[in-house]
Design brief:
The complex is a heterodimer of chains A (176) and B (156). Chain A is α/β, with parallel strands linked by helices and 176 residues long. Chain A has helices at 4-22, 72-87, 101-111, 125-129, 157-173; strands at 42-43, 51-52, 62-67, 92-97, 117-121, 137-141, 147-152. The radius of gyration of chain A is 20 Å and the shape is elongated. The termini of chain A are far apart. The model of chain A has no long low-confidence stretch (mean pLDDT 93). In chain B, helix 2 (28-40) runs antiparallel to helix 3 (57-71) and helix 3 runs antiparallel to helix 4. The model of chain B has no long low-confidence stretch (mean pLDDT 85). The chains are: A alpha/beta (176), B mainly alpha (156). The interface between A and B is medium-sized, with 16 and 15 residues.
Chain lengths: 176, 156
């Protein structure tokens, strides 16, 4: 009987700590979800004289993927993005974050280019507006230009099938 | 060996330099505001470091932003809002009191209260168990023993 209270306290602590172990501390919830995609107007990676801004993809459901040629885990998710682009389910726009144009272009040549277009954010100011803190990051934007989901870290086939694509299909079904 | 140890010590001293770059302010009050802020804001890359401590590229960029806001004459709240609008309350080492942080702020007070109540009840029960007042029979017994001891003392 006298051990019952400490045992109960211990059990409660174990439960809380066990829940804590399953959480990912790197996953910081974005306050931008449910808000309009932050505006920008940046030159494109492929053509410095052309610009890209969120108004270019208004009216359609898109993914915005933050990437860089120096980003190692971008390499990990790249085949997933390439396959998604081949399937043509949803257009992917790139935000090339704190990169050099030559390096970025070389990277796309070498690994393939899944992007409808990539914006060139050399100083990372747009990345800050989008709350980027770890590349790669992927945003799901609806027809009205609202951010509906953010995936931090490389897009895995599992994350694509379980979170991203079901949401994309649902948003594509919604009236514009 | 000695020289080697000394070298290691000196190397250690060299690396304690701050991550923060030197910045010019047109007003020492602004500088104080800036320095206080970057200590209070949390880096998102090295999550257990403040913006002031972190060497991460992003921390430097965010220090640039905070510097720009403060130098332009805006107050701390403005700089904090800039960061929480983009990164959420996570950047604050002192999260605001609201629904989701109630347990965080109220938890320690609750534990203190529960602990206090627990200790109070325990000590009351103890007091009831171990009565220090002697009953009449015990007092009589005690006096008898004292008397017999005194007698032995006189005899001895």
């Amino acid at each position: 009987m006298r051990f019952l209270i400490p045992l109960a306290v211990f059990a409660i602590m174990v439960i809380f700590l066990a829940i804590g172990l399953t959480l990912n501390p790197r996953e910081v919830p974005s306050p931008l979800i449910g808000k309009p995609a932050p505006a920008f107007n940046l030159p494109q990676v492929a053509a410095a004289d052309k610009t890209l801004s969120p108004s270019d993809f208004k009216g359609q459901v898109v993914l915005v993927n933050v990437w860089a040629s120096w980003c190692v885990s971008c390499r990990q998710e790249h085949p997933v993005l390439l396959q998604l682009a081949r399937q043509g389910l949803v257009p992917i726009y790139g935000l090339n974050y704190k990169d050099q144009r030559e390096a970025a272009l070389g990277w796309l040549r070498q690994h393939g280019d899944p992007y409808a277009a990539s914006a060139f954010d050399a100083d990372g100011r747009v990345g800050i507006d989008w709350g980027v803190y770890g590349v790669p990051e992927t945003f799901v934007i609806d027809r009205a230009g609202i951010i509906r989901h953010k995936h931090t870290g490389p897009v895995t086939p599992a994350a694509l099938e379980q979170d991203i694509l079901p949401l994309v299909r649902q948003l594509q079904g919604e009236a514009p | 060996m000695r020289g080697w140890l000394l070298g290691c010590l000196l190397l250690g001293l060299g690396s304690t330099g701050l991550a923060v770059e030197v910045r010019d302010f047109d007003d020492p009050a602004k500088q104080a505001r800036y320095e206080r802020l970057i200590e209070e804001l949390r880096c998102l890359v090295c999550q257990n470091q403040s913006l002031a401590d972190s060497d991460a590229e992003l921390a430097k960029d965010l220090r640039d932003e905070v510097y720009g806001i403060i130098q332009s004459g805006k107050d701390e709240a403005e700089a904090v809002r800039f960061l929480t609008d983009r990164y959420g309350d996570f950047v604050l080492y002192r999260p605001p009191v609201k629904g989701i942080t109630l347990l965080l702020w109220g938890g320690p007070v609750m534990i203190l209260l529960f602990g206090g109540v627990f200790v109070w009840f325990r000590s009351r029960r103890h007091a009831a168990e171990y009565q220090t007042e002697l009953s009449d029979a015990e007092r009589l017994q005690l006096e008898e023993r004292l008397e017999s001891l005194e007698q032995k003392h006189h005899e001895g």
